[in-house]
Amino acid sequence: MADPGLGGQLNPCRALDPAVAGRTSTAVSSDGRSGNARRTVLHLAVDYPDAFDRQKTVAIRNFVEANRAVDHVVVALTRTEDPRKVVLVHGDGAGDGRVYSMRYLSPPFGILLYPAMAVVAWRIRRLIERERIRVDLIHAHKLCFEGISGYLLARWLDKPLVCSVRAEAESKIVRFMPHYHPLIRRIIRRCERLYYVSLWYRPTIERLFPEAAKRGRPLPNFCPGTALPADARPDPDRFVTILHLDIYKKKGLDRLLEGFARFAARHPEAKLDIIGRGTPQSIGRIEGLIRRVGLEGRARLRGALPRSELLAELPGFGAMCLPSHNETFGMVYVEALLSGVPILYSTGTGIDGFLEEVDGAVGVDPTSVDAITQGLEELRAGHARMRASLIARHAQIAARFEAAPFVERYNRELGLAA
Q1: 87-90 and 99-105: which strand pairing?
Q2: Minimal CB count within 10 Å: which of 14, 231, 247, 289?
């Protein structure tokens, strides 16, 4: 399979998954049965593990795998600024034939966003025609990015469209590119539903685009495999933060370290583990921050941990702290809560909006070191009460992020269920 790419020039395609290369996705169900009775959802997603980057978040893949009542075709998108790297391959690099991995050309910072997404839509249309892919619904997983491609495809193919709202990305376009507002309004009007992964951002969308109000539904990220261990013995003085170290400022680590230094001055037993991967340059900068605030021996960099190891170790911590800026959702918050670990999170971003009446979730202003310090004090003082509450209400909290009811409503409202 070769992809026309840009300017009509063919790009060579190397099939990374030989077992699935060249196989069509038409009417083949996940259980191997003939699929005419089953609906097929075409997903357009930048944040999906693919043949070019296996480290992308698994949040959208969790949603796809949770919805077994329909068939799925995923076009996983990876941006490049090098036209020589524009290419399309069948597969995700790990044997999943539902996935097509597409590198697309686009400058950074949303420059030429519409033309870039229009070319993506054209390439996907050619893919659908060439592979004879059945499409019953298009799900674009960011309103202001993939949503542009999804909108064009929905018009060309005359298919229904839904979009997810992930505020980390959407807010940049909505705020800094107001000339895109008319296009966003047209996309919203075309959508059957808007699915808010960032529920806190819903009021902003509905204020700017009143058409969105009747279309909105919550759709949190799912966190399968998180269970409450019966034998955990947490240390209330042992704190943890979990992040990608290369974006430590966006994740609020700089202010967290300042706040933790103030907190640790009053609590000599308090320690902070920093878990996550990063480049040597990022690690060096963070080590410098630790020295600058006087946390040598109190804050330690642990590196990355496999998810299974992280979930096994998480219940031993007293609290998980991540005062991020402009977080889309943050699966680690849910994983901590379901492990019986209280959390410090940021108000007005991330998981905010899904945590009403959860005693064990302390919201703070991520721009204020004073607020972060006070939040740490609250977590330490209320640790026993918060942990007991999280254990007692584990089932109710888990239900807020349980896949089944959200998937069932998705299929029912969109007419996908057989």
Answers
A1: antiparallel
A2: 231
